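Open question from group meeting: does this chain pack into something compact, or does most of it stay loose? Before anyone orders reagents, we agreed to write out a predicted structure and look at it together. Recording both the input and the output here so the notebook holds the full record.
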Amino acid sequence: MLNSTFPITDVSAADSTARSHTHSDQCGTSACSMKYDTFKVACSSCNLRELCLPVGLSAPQLSHLDSLVATRKTVKRGDALFHTGDPFRSVYAVRTGFFKTRVSSEDGRDQVTGFQMAGELLGLDGISTDRHACDAIALEDSQVCVIPYSQLEDLSREFSDLQHQFHKIMSREIVRDHGVMLLLGSMRAEERLAAFLLNLTQRLHARGFSASALVLRMTREEIGSYLGLKLETVSRTFSKFQEEGLLEVKQRDIRIMDEAGLKALVNSVRC
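Structure tokens returned:
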């Protein structure tokens, strides 16, 4: 579940604004030593707010949202934020760390459905049935802001801007699903991996990280599960990209050497 669509486009103006923020506030006060269940999360001063839910809200509206987002939750690497079938009560804004979502088929196989990073939301899958439809697993030690959904609905009815923003998030998920269908249905292995890497670096760049270098938080097997490719195909494609000078690969450390070449692969037109 990538929170951007395919094919790759340029980073938005809002993302550009977000790059001006740093991540120094994560432990910049003595409050960081407090337990997460009593920590007061201030959306109005969060350095990810341009990337998360309260985009475009006024100061009074942000103050109301501050009162709603009252807890943080820490999830250790490998642990689940929620499981398939768990009651749906909250949506979660990723503050730090990285997650994957997955579903299990009837034969017991796991299918990765997406990767979420700081500034993105988890838990929207539970809205329709009041139960979560996937597992959300931390790929590294992570922290989320807990947003009780019933209270979010009440606040959305009070503030039309917040309701509009939430509708935009839901619309983005629908468009993203269409993009993933295109990715899996019409692209060759090289195109799928190129699109995945470009999408990932753009999302990281919007959060203040390098536009060309990244450390993969997920394994090649997890990438293959998401892209509908075998592990051997993913590994072979990484090697091929390195041989062609598109990437520099050192295990999980990836550097994009030829961004234009990757984009040409994604946007190639075939008869």
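Observations to bring back to the group:
The chain is about 35% helix and 20% strand.
Residues 39 and 145 are 10 Å apart (CA to CA).
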